[in-house]
Amino acid sequence: MEAAEDREHRHAPPGGAPGGGDGGPQDERRPRRPRPDPQGPAGDAEPDDFHPERGRLVLPRGDRRSEDRPGTDPPPQEGRGFGDRRVPAEQGDPVRPSSSRRIALARLLEEGRGAELAPDPVAFPHRYSDPRDAEAAAFLAATFAFGAVLQIRNFLSRLFDALPPSPHAALTGAEPVRRRSVAGLSHRFISSDGVYRFLRCVRGAYLAHGSLERLYIAGRGEAPPDLRRDLARFLDGFRDRWGKSLSRERDFLFPRPERGSACKRHNLFLRWVVRGPDGVDLGLWSAVSPRDLIVPLDTHMARLGGWLGLTRRKTPDWRMAEEITASLRAACPEDPVKFDYPLTRLGILRICTRPRRGVCGHCPVASLCSLRSSAAG
Ligand code: SF4
User: Fold this and answer.
1) How far apart are CA 57 and CA 55, in angstroms?
2) What domain count does the chain have?
3) pLDDT above 70 coverage of the chain, percent
4) Is 181 a pocket residue for ligand 1 (Cβ < 6 Å)?
């Protein structure tokens, strides 16, 4: 395990901001975008790192599809919040459900059972038995879950060391977290000043609403659930407390799903607090049904989604996340996102060996994969 993490770690130096930035208080540069992988998006950058309007992957002409071109978004539909860019229901299930897919996904779940949590940032909220601490730790850990695995773990260890012994108490106490407690604590292109502002925003939300679940419910109001709209309002509850400077860091830490961002880290947070408890996800909230969750679209899910026929889209944005979710929903309508953890393990733990070695080893989804080699089990 350590060897795998070390290999991943080499892609990004610890604490190094993209483009050689020092991550200091004035460093607001955006991450340098990776070159597109001919097999799909890859590397440490996540779909969240791509601004859908300014950071689209450049595709060979032959790979472009009409739905990936600007100006071809589905027309607004009555009763749809943000009736602008979402995939209508009739487009949302690009591949018909099949018994072979159900069998392969069931096999994936079975083989992934009991896998250790250690490399995943969800291990941090599992440290706390008090649900208030677990919720706060989940939001902090998910928000900073970008970059190489070892880099994330190092940063989160230092962050939680600065909030002892209870993250919830540290965020809601009479005295706010001091700036000097997080001095020098930066993560990739998020400066220590950005980390400090982030903690102040979370504190403000807690003091105003009592819990993050109540903030989410307040954003929804009396309207029926709409995850994209509700998540946008939830994140606005933090953005509005940020202040004027470091706007690029703010926009990265609190992205806008209504502008097309896949919001991988915040859909990951919702998965953690809504699903379960099942040993991985925490099952802390009742405000959202697992049926309504959207997959956290990281590079592994975006790549596998294409190979497994879960999406035909090329741009890793909110619409791709919706399309993959719709395909998984056909296999399990009550809980489509339960496949996220074992699917992304294939990439994160390098069980999928094809990109590096050119051949597939034993793989639970080989029967679905368009890229499988004859050696796949
Ligand atoms: S069949 Fe091969 S390429 Fe496809 S997911 Fe499995 S290991 Fe990766």
Assistant:
1) 6
2) 1
3) 72
4) no
